[in-house]
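Running log. JK asked me to keep both predictions on one page so they can be read side by side. First protein, sequence followed by its tokens:
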Amino acid sequence: MRVLVAEDERMLADSVTEGLRHLGMAVDVCYDGDAALERVMVNRYDVVLLDRDLPKVHGDEVCRRIAEGDGETRVLMLTAAAGIRDRVDGLGLGADDYLTKPFAFAELVARVHALARRARPALPPVLDRAGVELDPAKRFASRDGRPLSLSPKEFAVLEVLLRAEGRAVSAEELLEKAWDEHADPFTNTVRVTVMTLRKKLGPPPVIHTVSGAGYRLGT
């Protein structure tokens, strides 16, 4: 899952970013509306956590521009204003959900997962292919009933491969969806992560290298 945190309270923004990264999400962060617009023009995000009162470019304008875009990115608007009129106005701008500060991190995560499901074609809550099962909400994965102890990045890569439903996924696509904007496109981190994931999944192999195309999960 690719997430952008656009929040001018730096301590809050950095805390939320680290928390979501710990859960295996690829998270970028910025602190003003100008930077938020730059990032949404360059990257495709599943969810944007958008502070309504951003400096430089107001969060309302950022929200409106996102809503006019590809139609796939979901916006969770964050604000200190708790009035009904504020929530109605925010949703009217194109926000998909609204969360009032201060908020519980667990609730934020639940809302991000719910919005991400709406950003993609409908899939079952538990992904299952070739004996591999993954529950994104519960952060649980198994193979043939055997629980897997995966790092956040291994979990993220496995989720991308399962969501591809047998389609080959390129290293570039894995890098885009499972890492943040600071990932080096020339690094071998994708290959190393796939290698360690294969070891944890065990024999017989279910992640196959497709020459010139990337990696495919299946029998």
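And the second, directly underneath as requested:
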Amino acid sequence: MNSLRTRRSILAATLASAALALSACGGGSAPAQSGGDTSLSDVKSKGELVIATEGTYRPFSFHAEGAGDLTGFDVEIAKAVAEKLGVKASFQETQFDGIFAGLDSKRFDTIANQISINDDRKAKYEFSAPYTISTGVVVTKSDNSSINSFADLKGKTTAQSLTSNFYKMAVEAGANVQAVEGWAQSATLVQQGRVDATVNDKLTYLDYAKTTPDSGLKVAAEAPDKTESAFVFRKGSSELTKAVDKALQDLRADGTLAKISDKYFGADVTK
């Protein structure tokens, strides 16, 4: 009798241990992801991709007619990417000088605001495949004959956003930089003669020249190196980055990227 009771006790203990092991392994529930990369699953769970953008950076991110809906090249591409991910695109408008701090503090999942890829940023953030290829240009007043190259910026004053890649280009050229919030303010200061120039994206200038033909500004010099702009993510967001890369690949293949690009620039600037 005691032997039978002992065997039953052993069997019960074995079954209990097996049940406990199955429970620890999930037992049909979603496996625990503690300490893992949940960047993509978090986006899928909340049903939206929260995207930081400036909202004042025409033609990439701006309000139609000044006070209309948020639109622009980056905005349309971000919406198309979110749709490929099966979630809603939710935008948070943020001044450029605080946009990386907002990403760091997890106020949003990514930034779509012509963020150019450079080594300093790659050391701290993850980037998607580039969706814009452009160059940096020096913009001056039309009657300025003293600046014809980046080297001519030495000792001159330029207007730049302090966290932009173009700020770095201006400083490396020897310019004295006056801080501004974005392109619109930079252009105004150049027009007023309060600064000598601004270094910015060629596509931004071309759109501005198209919509403001009497601006009195010109491209005085163009950088030899191309700049690549992409979505930027916090380090550790590899799963979300890979999903966005796949979305961009699909959007390029089905012609969506080229269509959006042609709408704003009359050419495909995505490759």
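Observation for JK regarding the second prediction: The chain has a mean pLDDT of 88.
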